[in-house]
Target: ATP-binding cassette domain-containing protein
Amino acid sequence: MSCIPRLRVHGLRSAMAGPFDLHVDAGECVVLMGKSGAGKTVLLRLIADLDPPRAGVVELDGARRERLSGPGWRRRVLYQPAEPAWWSPVVRQHFDGADIDRVRAMAAALGLPDAILDAELMHLSTGERQRLALVRSLSRGPSVLLLDEPTASLDQASILAYEALLAEETGKGMAILWVTHSREQAGRVGHRCLTVADRALQSA
Ligand SMILES: Nc1ncnc2c1ncn2[C@@H]1O[C@H](COP(=O)(O)OP(=O)(O)OP(=O)(O)O)[C@@H](O)[C@H]1O
Model:
């Protein structure tokens, strides 16, 4: 088995945050916790190359981020914000090019009806949109998924289904960095837990 981590972050900093050093192995789920305003979203956005880093290295399977285009990197290292964006009125329009049978299966696993693909986003609940955001993320086959409080609007049964679907994906090798405020959730899903404070990682 390779000892190169799926995701390696070394000395990553922006003008106002860091340095951050961490790694996530293939098939691993690392939980990020910390007070509101601690810098968790800032870290995920730096890793996804959505905000410009001032220094540091980010590698995917040993290859530096600079070797890929920005969009190419973000397809492999996919950031799912706490409030995911939708750019077309109908759900199905966000799944162009996706394996629609797999999309249907994932939606069903999250308790969403088949007909939801033809629904208008403005008619869906926050929790339905939050579950669809995960289906959309997974349908793109990322190597690393950066999840920012992804289950904040869900009931307990939906949360457990959401976690189970992600456990299947880590079982196939996907790596996850998962921001949550729930200690119970961290205990269920996290192989390891890191804490962010004052816009930097706290040492364990
Ligand atoms: N682009 C920016 N420029 C300046 N300050 C920023 C920027 N983005 C975030 N911040 C600040 O950095 C701090 C950390 O924000 P961040 O969104 O990472 O917090 P968080 O840990 O994700 O909090 P929460 O749990 O509430 O989502 C906050 O004080 C925020 O105002």
The mean pLDDT is 95. The first helix runs from residue 40 to 47.
